[in-house]
Amino acid sequence: MIALTRREFHLFQAAGRDFLYLVPSAAVFALDAPTSAVLGAVCEKPLSDEAVVAALAARFDGDAVRTAIRELVDVRAIGYEHQPVEQPPRMLPMMPFPLNTMVLNVTNQCNLACTYCYEYGEDKIVDTEHGKQSKFMSEQTALASVDFLLKESARVAHLTFFGGETLLNFPVLKSTIAYARRRAAEAGKEIDFSLTTNATLLKPEIIEFLAENHVGVTISIDGPREMQDKFRVFHNGAGSYDVVAPKIKELLRVHRTRPIGARVTLTSDTLDITRIYRHLTEEMGFWEVGFAPVTTSPQQQYAIGEHGFDRMLGQFRALAAEFLAHAAVNRHHGFTNVKDTLEEIHKGVSKAYPCGAGLGLLGVSTDGDVALCHRFAGSDAHKFGTVHDGIDRDAQTAFLQQHHINDKTDCQTCWARPLCSGGCYHEAHVRYGTTTRPNLHYCEWIRGWTDTCLQIYGELSERNPDFLARFDREEAKAEAVL
Ligand code: SF4
Ligand code: SF4
């Protein structure tokens, strides 16, 4: 007797039926009654085909059970005991990998002194105060960075300005955009611009410039006054809410060419997610809001501990339920954490690396050093060349070899690895002192959140598949540009 046995999947329920998230293929598979029953029987104990047919004879006829077995074997949810489970090969991306997004750190200085900031706090990687990197990027370096991006990108390039506080170097940002537009047109490429700012330096001429130039804007803000002023303070300790609130309202009123998003850093002291979301969308007028837990060592009093992650998950779930209610009737909801994960699920994303850092995304320091991402810009240990000399392909290849998901032993038995792939390198560096370690301190949170998003995906696939089809349409639109 050759017995059937379970393979690797995550079972979840949505819209009153069972679904599988198939780990090797990162596909979602809806089960009907016979496939659910077959799976249940095989998961209880290994059984031969005929033993499964016999066990389910009272509920389904033999042909229906055999068809269900075939389907489950085809999608590799179950398999025969004697057939070895194939491990996916350890494939490195084809080189040279095109650069898709370049994050330009136009300054490492900031007019705020947010207590949790990785650039200035105890967790910093790069000493921006006493290190060798310039405090501001020169126009010459910024223009050389544009040439570098256009040389290394495929047909479409994204240029993101970052800091410190990005707008402290607005003159360079302005001339860089003008130069990049001209050079991209000459090179026959598309270029798109975005920036992240703390909003303190927004003023009418800057807002007008951003609107006219279709610059995507993300505002770092933590919510209503009492939450914003807890950590996002000026160097003299004064809170920043009263300074930024009117400027943001003006930005949202004038800049209508692209949706403006808020990016919230969550700490153990500011975990009222629903209240933050309501304030930023309904009271302030942001189109969308994304949340990320603070990156810090566990000793910090504001670090989110185990209970904090549980609380955060509960609140994310409540807001995600609201997202689902909106999406089911094609209404906009601005909780981007759900939307982003749904898109990855829909596209069957299976990551060998947690994010684009070091691959399609690179950060550039104020002196033009090219780094893993913006959070490592200026760190010699994470340098991949310079904008003048190009990408150090040996360093890049060595990095990709060391960080492949197949080498993260703890992740090899985790069903969430196609989407998590070990998590952010910066978080790992801060927690464990190395980018190679998976972020095992937040696995429960990742799996809980991924399960929630899978349930929403399953619900939408039954109740409003058109909502999910928009991801295909958006992709087709982007490819048409290519
Ligand atoms: S870090 Fe944790 S949640 Fe992420 S893939 Fe690894 S084991 Fe899974
Ligand atoms: S390493 Fe972390 S901070 Fe850098 S791009 Fe990836 S997810 Fe973002």
Could you explain the architecture of this structure?
- The chain is an alpha/beta fold.
- The chain has helices at 33-44, 49-55, 62-74, 139-152, 170-187, 204-212, 225-231, 241-254, 273-283, 306-327, 336-346, 393-402, 417-420, 425-432, 443-463, 465-481, and strands at residues 4-6, 9-14, 17-22, 27-30, 78-80, 101-105, 156-162, 190-197, 216-220, 261-266, 288-293, 361-364, 369-371, 383-386, 390-391.
- Strands 11-10-9-8-7-6-12-13-14-15 form a ten-stranded mixed sheet. The chain has a three-stranded antiparallel sheet with strand order 2-3-4, covered by helices on one side.
- α1 crosses α3.
- It is globular and about 75 Å long.
- The model has no long low-confidence stretch (mean pLDDT 94).
- Bound molecules: iron/sulfur cluster (SF4) (2 copies).
- The site of one iron/sulfur cluster has 8 residues, from α14.
- One iron/sulfur cluster (SF4) binds at residues 410-411, 414, 416-417, 420-423, 438-440, 443, 446-447.
Low-confidence stretches: none
How many DSSP-defined strands?
15
Radius of gyration: 24 Å
Bound molecules: iron/sulfur cluster
Helix content: 40-55%
Q: Summarize the main sheet.
A: 10 strands, mixed
Structural class: alpha/beta
Number of helices: 16
Overall mean confidence score, pLDDT: 94
Distance between the termini: 54 Å
Report the β-strand fraction as a percent range: 5-15%
- Specify the overall morphology: globular
Biggest β-sheet: strands ordered side by side in the sheet: 11-10-9-8-7-6-12-13-14-15
